[in-house]
Amino acid sequence: MYVWKGTYVKEVKMEIMNIIPGKFVEEYDSHDGGHMLFAHLVGKNGYTRTYKKMKGTKILDNSWWELRKNLPIKTLIQKAHMIEADVLTLPDFFIADKKFYEKIRKCLKLIEKLDKNIKVMGVVKGTSLKEELNSFDYFNSLIGIDWIAVPYPVRVWDEWRRPELINMIDKLFNSRGFGIEKPVHLFGVNNLETLKSEKRYYVQSADTTLAFKCGYFNIKLPIHPSQDPKRPKDYFEIKKINKKQEECIKHNLKWMSDFKE
After folding, report:
1. 223: domain CATH number?
2. Does residue 222 have a cis peptide bond before it, meaning omega lies within 30 degrees of 0?
3. Among the listed residues 27, 5, 1, the one whose alpha carbon sits nearest the alpha carbon of residue 239
4. Per-residue pLDDT of the chain (261 residues; tens, 9 = 90+)
5. Residue 4 domain-assigned?
6. What is the rounded CA–CA span in Å between residue 220 and residue 54?
7. Is 133 inside a domain boundary?
8. What total of structural domains would you count in the chain?
9. 17 pairs with which residues across the strands?
10. Nearest 5 degrees, angle CA 27-CA 210-CA 132?
11. What is the rounded end-to-end Cα distance, in angstroms, of the chain?
12. Where are the beta strands (DSSP E) in the chain?
């Protein structure tokens, strides 16, 4: 995986990070690839210990989607230290918020004070595609932001519109005559067809529950988007799987590994 060093983003293969329930991380997550970790799980039995010893780039997600709220930036920094994360995801802030710029500045100031070596990922957030484009543009130019996360556009069920946002980003920067300066990560990819259309030189990585989630429901990849099962509410707390589920999960992980090539 390409880690931002402060120079222009170079083209590499997109890395797919499989999101695995805590009990199965050591067995099923790639030990030397990239990892997407979740702040609300850091500190729980085994999760911190397992990921702390793993190699590869570790991105700490802010767990906004799981908690439906932002954790304080100081808490996120502390959890990043616990897990020895390489990249810290900022809290989700809507660009239309009157205090958006002030909130971002305060976060970056505290990170600079407590851990100036960690890389920082800004989250694109808006109530329209235009706002999200403006959010992306802001993070791309902001000193102190090293990565940009692009989640579902506008509404959580609008993953099919994310390619539209990516195309808008392309059009904006092509019209200016220069490219994206920071690596981009795609949050929560659940549609493989969408993922194919989102491949760009600047899209460095994506995370997904597809491999384990589908295997848990005894569904083998590849699948049509309409077949994608809803993630169980207790997904991260899954403790047991049977032999058939295990075989299906292993098949899906192998398929995902081949897919990214």
Report:
1. 3.20.20.105
2. yes
3. 27
4. 333 333 334 445 788 899 999 999 989 987 667 899 999 999 987 899 999 888 889 999 999 989 999 999 999 999 999 999 999 999 999 999 999 999 999 999 999 999 989 999 999 999 888 999 999 999 999 999 999 999 876 555 566 678 888 889 989 988 887 778 899 999 988 877 777 777 788 888 999 999 999 999 999 999 988 888 989 989 999 999 999 999 999 999 999 888 766
5. no
6. 27
7. yes
8. 1
9. 207
10. 120
11. 13
12. 15-18, 35-38, 58-61, 87-89, 119-123, 147-150, 184-186, 203-208
**Residue 60, beta-bridge partner list:** 37, 88
- Grouping H, G, I as helix, E, B as strand and the rest as coil, residue 24 is helix
Token digits of residue 218: 């005894």
6 part of a folded domain: no
**Can you tell me the distance from the alpha carbon of 129 to that of 26, in angstroms, rounded to the nearest whole number?**
38
* SS3 category, 123: strand
139 domain-assigned: yes
Give the Å distances, CA to CA, from 212 to 7, 90, 139, 234. 35, 26, 32, 13
* Cα gap 232→213, rounded to integer Å: 8
d(CA 37, CA 54): 12
* Integer Rg of the chain from CA: 18
Domain of residue 165: give its range: 15-259
Three-state SS at 100 = helix
Contact partners, residue 21, CB within 8 Å, separation at least 6 = 212, 235, 236, 237, 238
